[in-house]
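ok, trying the design again with the full structure, not the truncated one.
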């Protein structure tokens, strides 16, 4: 088997540059050398602002830090392409929310620096979702974060929480630049640095390496996405990802319900429900009241279909209930009933390291309740509540 060697990202950038050189040659123009094109691409003449606050480009250190982040971003051509594609899906809603809140439009670029607009982005420090909330801050700003639901991954909920948090940070620091820096490192940490260093200008503060780069990463995203053609990107409308039309419905249930029941009620697939609702972490929706997204047009009659399917499932599931016996193991039970071991864990909402005890009840959903491999007809004791 031949070993496949992936070209470094800078090769992709040079490929883009070469493409534009070839266009220039085809048009009869004198091509600009590759290196010069890169130099010109990251040459920012200004003026440049973040949330209408000026970036001091006349400061050589500031200019160097900005150019570094621009070069790093442009070195990752695949990332920039995905920024362009995803921003078309998500930025319009962020922009509407910012306008409604009378907040600066530039704040939308924070999502690029934080997660590249990925719902399942997760950091080593435990930050998650589009806006990369850590658990404590997410809970403080009203997001539900449990083993089953993580609203940091819900675009609408997380965006509302993030903008409220940023508004509070602005009230604290009276600067959107400092508010963004505090969003990255925490308000207590930034206040401490301002107090000790006796400086309240982000560009003049000595901060941890991540926050030292943070505003410049946001600015790099702003510069590239505001004028992608300058950097060799000219996407057509069909190249971009578009918002996925959906309906919002409320589900109220007193018991845990499999996601596939919701999918059936919405006349769609399990995957579609999970994709529309990345906050649902597992295979079941827990007891409670939830607003969820379903495919556009499926809301008509959804509540009635869901109620019928949920009641039917609840009435029939005990046909598949098995009582654990002495000596049973999860692996052994899966083999006996000819079902996947992982499916057994999912059906019963348990982990593989769980110790099962005699008398416990397990759901074993064989192909049909009258199958010879079902708990009811397998020749072993079944039980009902």
């Amino acid at each position: 088997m031949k070993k496949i060697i992936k070209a470094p990202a800078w090769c992709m950038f040079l490929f883009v540059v070469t493409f534009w050189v070839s266009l220039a040659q085809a048009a009869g123009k004198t091509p600009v050398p590759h290196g010069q094109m890169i130099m010109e691409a990251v040459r920012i003449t200004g003026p440049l602002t973040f949330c209408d606050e000026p970036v001091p480009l006349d400061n050589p250190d500031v200019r160097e830090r900005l150019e570094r982040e621009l070069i790093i971003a442009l070195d990752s051509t695949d990332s920039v392409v995905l920024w362009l594609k995803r921003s078309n899906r998500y930025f319009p809603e962020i922009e509407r929310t910012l306008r409604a809140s009378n907040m600066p439009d530039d704040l939308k670029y924070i999502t690029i620096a934080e997660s590249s607009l990925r719902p399942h982005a997760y950091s080593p420090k435990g930050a998650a979702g589009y806006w990369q909330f850590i658990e404590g801050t997410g809970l403080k700003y009203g997001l539900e974060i449990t083993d089953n639901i993580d609203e940091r991954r819900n675009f609408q909920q997380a965006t509302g929480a993030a903008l409220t948090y940023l508004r509070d940070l602005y009230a604290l620091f009276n600067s959107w630049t400092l508010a963004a820096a505090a969003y990255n490192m925490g308000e207590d940490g930034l206040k401490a640095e301002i107090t000790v260093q006796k400086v309240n200008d982000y560009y003049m503060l000595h901060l941890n390496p991540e926050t030292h780069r943070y505003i410049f990463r946001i600015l790099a995203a702003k510069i590239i996405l505001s004028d992608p053609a300058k950097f060799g990107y000219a996407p057509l409308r069909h190249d971009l990802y578009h918002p996925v039309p959906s309906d919002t419905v409320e589900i109220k249930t007193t018991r845990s319900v499999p996601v596939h029941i919701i999918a059936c009620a919405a006349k769609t697939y399990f995957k579609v429900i999970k994709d529309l609702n990345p906050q649902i972490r597992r295979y079941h929706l827990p007891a409670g009241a939830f607003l969820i997204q379903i495919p556009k047009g499926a809301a008509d009659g959804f509540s009635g279909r869901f109620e019928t399917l949920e009641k039917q499932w609840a009435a029939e599931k005990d046909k598949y209930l098995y009582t654990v016996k002495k000596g049973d193991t999860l692996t052994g039970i899966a083999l006996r009933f000819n079902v996947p071991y992982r499916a057994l864990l999912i059906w019963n909402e348990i982990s593989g390291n769980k110790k099962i005890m005699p008398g416990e009840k397990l759901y074993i959903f064989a192909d049909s309740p009258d199958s010879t491999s079902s708990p009811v007809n397998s020749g072993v004791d079944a039980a009902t509540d």
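Keeping the full-length input from now on. Strands lie at 49-50, 53-54, 246-253, 257-258, 284-285, 288-295, 321-323, 361-363.
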